Amino acid sequence: MFEPSLSTSAMRPSPLQSDVPSMADSLPNINFGFDDLRDRMSQFTEKFDKFIAKGRKRVLEERNQFRINVAEFQEDQRAKTKEIELLAHKSSDHAQAIDKEAAETVEMHAAIASITQQRDARAKHRDCIKSEIVAVRKQIAQRISAQQQHAKELDEQARLNGPELDFWQTYLCMRIEGTGVADRLKFVFTHVDEKDWEREAWFELDTEKRDYRVSYAKPKLETEEVERCVERLNESRDLGPFLKGMRQLLTAAGK
Predict the structure, then answer these.
(1) Cα–Cα distance list, 156 to 144, 160, 162, 239 (Å)
(2) Is there a contact between 213 and 183 (Cβ–Cβ < 8 Å)?
C-alpha cells in the first residue's frame, strides 16, 4: 500500500537544503480514501456474514423440515401398512366366519333332522311310558295297601311289646335315652356295681341299617363278645335276650 507520508519524508531535503524549494512541495496533495474504503469493506463483510448466517439457518431449517417431513411420511407409511395388514386380517376372519356359518348351517339342518327323528321316537316312547305309568300306579296302590296293613300289624305288635319292654326295664334296672343322633338309642343300666348301686353303665345301639351295631359302650367291652350279642340280635330280632347279654358284659367289665 502506498503511504504518502513516507514518500514525502523520503523526498524531504536535508536541513541544509530546507530553504531551497523542492519539487515534492510543488506536487498536489492526493487523498486516496482508504478510510472510507475500509469502512465499506467492513460493512460489506458484516452484511456478507449475516447473509451466510441467514443462509445457513435457512438451509438448517429446510434440512430439519425435510427430515420431519420424511419421518412423518415414514410414520404415515407404517400406519398405512398396519391398516392394510389389519384389513387383510379382518378380511381373512370374515371369510373364515362365512365358511363357519355355512358349515354351521349344514350342521343345523342335520341337527333339525336328527331332532325330528328323536321327537318321533320320544312320542312313541311317551305312549309306552304312559302305559307303564298306569301299571306302576296300580302296583303303588297295591303296595300302599300292603304297607298300611303292615303298619297296622306293627302297631298291634308295639302294643304287645310295650308291657314286655316295661318288664325288661324293671327287671334289668335299665332306661332308654336319646343320643341326639337319628336312629341311635342309649341304654343305661344301674345296679351293676354291688358297692355303688347308683353307678351307671351304658351302650349306644345304632339302628340306621337293617343290621344293628353297638357304636359305643362304657365301660369298654371286648369287641368279639359285643359282636356275638349283636349277631344274635340281628338274626332273631329279639331285643330282650340282647339287653340281658349286654348287661352281663357291662357288669363283668365294671368289676
Answers:
(1) 18, 6, 10, 17
(2) no
